[in-house]
């Protein structure tokens, strides 16, 4: 299915948010997820089903000064 990840249209096989993170090699990293402009708690990643056309933002923390 096609979704938009961080502003880029992508073809994915994943059906859930946590599966998407695994597919995109984000496993084990600290990230926040917004699905269709709503922040999604980590406790819901495994049971949140993705649909074609969804917009997903994967936000990674940055260290800076």
Automatic annotation (TrEMBL):
<dbReference type="InterPro" id="IPR016155">
    <property type="entry name" value="Mopterin_synth/thiamin_S_b"/>
</dbReference>
<dbReference type="InterPro" id="IPR010035">
    <property type="entry name" value="Thi_S"/>
</dbReference>
<dbReference type="Pfam" id="PF02597">
    <property type="entry name" value="ThiS"/>
</dbReference>
<dbReference type="InterPro" id="IPR003749">
    <property type="entry name" value="ThiS/MoaD-like"/>
</dbReference>
<protein>
    <submittedName>
        <fullName>Thiamine biosynthesis protein ThiS</fullName>
    </submittedName>
</protein>
<dbReference type="InterPro" id="IPR012675">
    <property type="entry name" value="Beta-grasp_dom_sf"/>
</dbReference>
